[in-house]
Design a protein that fits this description.
alpha+beta, 21% strand, eight-stranded mixed sheet, 9 helices, Peroxisomal Thiolase, Chain A, domain 1, 8 strands, 267 residues
């Protein structure tokens, strides 16, 4: 019996936003050593593609997810309405969670409808549909600190099995105190990978994934390694660094306890 080949997809484009990393070209320059990383707070703005009413209601999580997703779509010249999507976050909107908890701990325990609908884990997927008019299948998942690798595995399998393009959007936002003391995510970080079954004109490489027990790769720069460890979505950085350098080979990403995700790149 033949051993089945691991699922694979081509990387058509990337979107990224994080502390001191305003977009993918800036992040690629940092990850390749062509620019120094100057850590500064992540700046989030509601994309203008949203209708005015929805722009006013968006929280940090939605702003982050839509910004990186739209960057990847624009870079590839893709039609967002046709793309299947996978939204992956370790814990959703930290600030909104804090505000709901504060309301429930007060004398007036009324929760606003806006707070409530921003609290659900698939809120970003809903806003994406409103912003882009997308009607393709959308999945929203959470695997705590393993959420980036879980999302990547899901998206690559969709591309390989269904032979469709799929947009992975992985994102995390920070919590204020006192929740930060138990969930110390320091800032917002998001990444989007547009994956396709066939190479795009400006393809960034081919990616195949499989489980491994090997140790996860670390970053050479201590400050960036600290960011990778602190924000679950930033566990993507070793893979992104290899893509930015145009390197082939294996990158091992953090996943579950005792299990990692190997990403085999062909540049």
């Amino acid at each position: 019996m033949k051993t089945p080949l691991p699922p694979a997809a081509h990387i058509a484009a990337i979107g990224l936003l994080g502390p001191g990393l305003p977009d993918w070209p800036a992040a690629a320059a940092v990850l390749t050593g062509r620019a120094d990383w100057q850590c500064s707070p992540t700046v989030l703005a509601a994309p203008q593609i949203l209708p005015p009413a929805e722009r006013r209601r968006t929280g940090r999580m939605v702003k982050l997810a839509l910004t990186v997703g739209l960057e990847a779509v624009a870079a590839a010249g893709a039609d967002a309405t046709t793309l299947a999507t996978v939204f992956s976050s370790s814990s959703g909107d930290g600030l909104n969670c804090h505000q709901i908890c504060a309301a429930l701990a007060s004398e007036d325990r009324q929760i606003s409808p806006t707070r409530f609908h921003n609290s659900v884990h698939n809120a970003a997927a809903g806003y994406w549909g409103i912003a882009t008019g997308a009607t393709a299948p959308a999945a929203a998942l959470c695997a705590h600190d393993a959420s980036f690798s879980a999302g990547l595995l899901e998206a690559v399998v969709q591309v390989a099995v269904e032979r469709i393009a799929c947009l992975l959007i992985a994102y995390d936002t920070d919590y204020p105190e006192p929740l930060r003391s138990v969930r110390p995510v320091p800032d917002a970080f998001g990444v989007a990978l547009l994956l396709t079954p066939e190479p795009a004109p400006a393809s960034l490489g081919r990616l195949a994934v499989q489980l491994t027990e090997a140790h996860a790769d670390r970053l050479r720069t201590p400050a960036l390694e600290a960011l990778r460890e602190a924000v679950p979505a930033a566990r993507s950085l070793p893979l992104l660094a290899a893509v930015a350098r145009g390197e082939g080979g294996r990158v091992v990403l953090d996943y579950l306890d005792g299990m990692r995700l190997a990403a085999d790149l062909v540049a």
